Amino acid sequence: MQSPIVSFPHMGESWIIMKAFFETLGLKVLVPPYNNEKTMKEGVINSPECVCIPYKITLGSMIEALKMGANCLFMIGGQRTGLCRLPQYVVNQEKTLREMGFEFEIYKVGDPLMIQRLLTKDLKELSGNPKDYYKKLIKALRIVWIKTELVDLTNQLSRFYRVYETNKGKTNKVREEMLKMVDDSKEIKELKKARKTIDESFKDIDIDKKREVVRILIGGEFYSVLDSFINCDIERRLAELNVLVENPTSFSYLIKAKMGLGIRKKLVRLGLKYVPVTSGGEDLPTIGRIEYFRKKGIDGYIILFPMGCLPETAIIPILDHLGKKFDLPIIHFSIDENLSETYLQTRLEAFINTIKRRKWKKNII
Amino acid sequence: MRIGLPKILLQYYKYGILCETFLKELKIDYIYSDCTNKKIVEDSLKVAQDEICIPVKLIYGHSLNLKGKCDKILVSRMISLKPNTITCPRLRILPELVSIQTEMEVLKLNINIQKYPLFFSFFTFGLKLRKNPISVVLAYYKAFKKYNKEIQELKEKRERFLKEEKIKIALIGHSYLIYDKFISLDILGRLKDVNVFVSEMADEVKELPATYWSEERELLNAAYYFIDKVDGILLLTSFLCGTGSLINEFIFSRAKECKVPIMQLIVDENTTETMVDTRIQAFLNMIWRKKICRVQ
């Protein structure tokens, strides 16, 4: 086999983390262009009709990577059991890609056993059996964890500064710079310095603390929450409407959830009050979020999910019921390839205006 | 106490006889909802969430149809119907959804063959109804015998059908779509002149693509079993069927390999009779012509 060129589909800023992992192991990495109209088109043409948008866009991303010359793909899924459609994705995608005539190898990242085999066998062979493989692996895993935290920190800070900044657009510039800096730094020492730089450069932004803001919680299926292309950059749009976004979903949230740690466990327990069994995906955390964040003073809740998503569409009646019970305005957006920006903008503006009016009314009384 | 049984989904079209005989043997009064009609569809569209398939939507209509006629309704929670598989996520939380949307008392029947056998779910269900354990066991035994007999009859029918020299078609689709005369627009009636094989008639096939959904595995199994025995395959799916959208791809490519004609019919609440009529007629004519050409 010719020398391996590793690639993977996009999900938000996850490419920074994945790229760092493979590069530290000494592999050649090819990052496909970030999700765009072309990716979407490529994916939609080659996938079944009623399948959800993450399938289409990851397929499109993989096709672009293969066309650019990659020959090793990494994709989530493939285990024997699952709940929603996610583990079935990779089986179908592999079949489609082979039928299109590409030659490649695909590595499935599923249950812990598969991950173990991947780390101890497959990646070792791919990187050419170096003697200090395990030393490199530990370093790579450390870098992955630090970079995950840094990316999450950048997103977290930019959420706050975007709302309060005095000259609009400054935060977005700083965020881009910081993400680039995280991507460029390759040693652990550099990354430790990067944390300070991120803190300092965000503090340099001028803010107006007196601005009145509305606090909104975002939840739902994680791909549509994390990927700024398919949700039309909803966080930026909300910030322009003076909304402080609360969004617990992040990359470290997902990694911690895989290990059974973190906030997701609490949210699941709260969700189990209303639904006795999980139906997969992020359904229980989506329900649990209402009760958890209600105490922290949330004015509204936006739920994002791909059109036809099995678990999220099933729980909508329960969410509406809880919204009425706790007096919390809830809006849901189903995302597919035909979601237009104007449609999203109008509905968001209307939703935020109603919330502002509600607040104003309450203050008068 | 009177129990209402909605005529919808797997609890009627797969385990209907089992439930009915079980309740009859325990001497519990029960009542069925009406067959699906226009009023039920309209009622359920008002209540149901969007973006789910039509059979799941209809459970609200059927439950509302029973309101006032009974004390409690039976809604089953299907978690797994075969070892090592699970059902579609939408079927897992139906009892909660029905009780929230229709404000009726719901009796739950949990079926989870992955963890415990079918007998256990009916046994606990019988005890919940405050019946004598021995009579519950006897009732289940009789009900199961009747249920098995029906499956046996279907297999005998298959052998008879295979011998006859008629056009043979495999109708692959969920049982709750095929047998519901309103949603499928009486597809079995329209295929009266040909021999139709449904998925329950198939035996086990060993080599199947990887799936983990119980219903879908049955459909794939049926498609792979009948593919070299029939003249054509008719796929019946509901619009926005989540699991079907991925699994049907395998059936399509398999049919392409074996050069068997295949047609997919997608149904929802807006499907008209003319559309189904023309498509089925065209499909049958094509198969018929192919057969004549081969003879000549």
Give an overview in words:
- The complex is a heterodimer of chains A (365) and B (296).
- Chain A has 16 helices and 8 strands.
- Chain A has helices at residues 14-24, 37-45, 53-67, 86-99, 112-126, 133-164, 170-184, 188-203, 222-226, 234-240, 251-258, 263-271, 283-294, 310-314, 316-326, 341-364, and strands at residues 5-7, 28-29, 72-76, 105-109, 214-220, 243-246, 300-306, 330-335.
- Chain A is of the alpha/beta class and 365 residues long.
- In chain A, strand 1 (5-7), helix 1 (14-24) and strand 2 (28-29) form a beta-alpha-beta unit.
- The model of chain A has no long low-confidence stretch (mean pLDDT 86).
- With 296 residues, chain B is an alpha/beta fold.
- Chain B folds into 2 domains: 2-149, Rossmann fold; 164-295, Rossmann fold.
- Chain B contains 12 helices and 8 strands.
- A 4-stranded parallel β-sheet of chain B has the order 2-1-3-4, with helices on both faces. Chain B has a 4-stranded parallel β-sheet with strand order 6-5-7-8, sandwiched between helices.
- At the A-B interface, helix 4, helix 14 and helix 15 of A face helix 5 and helix 11 of B.
Q: Which structural category do the helix and sheet elements of chain A fall into?
A: alpha/beta
**What CATH first level of the largest domain in chain B would be assigned?**
Alpha Beta
Helix- and strand-based class of chain B? alpha/beta
Tally of distinct domains of chain B: 2
Q: Uncertain segments of chain A of ≥5 residues (pLDDT<50)?
A: none
Low-confidence residue ranges of chain B: none
Strand tally of chain B, please? 8
Distance between the termini of chain B: 66 Å
- Kindly identify the CATH topology of the largest domain in chain B: Rossmann fold
Q: Identify the strand order in the major beta sheet of chain B.
A: 2-1-3-4
| Number of extended strands of chain A | 8
Rounded mean pLDDT of chain B is 85
Number of distinct helices of chain A = 16
The major sheet of chain B is characterized as: 4 strands, parallel
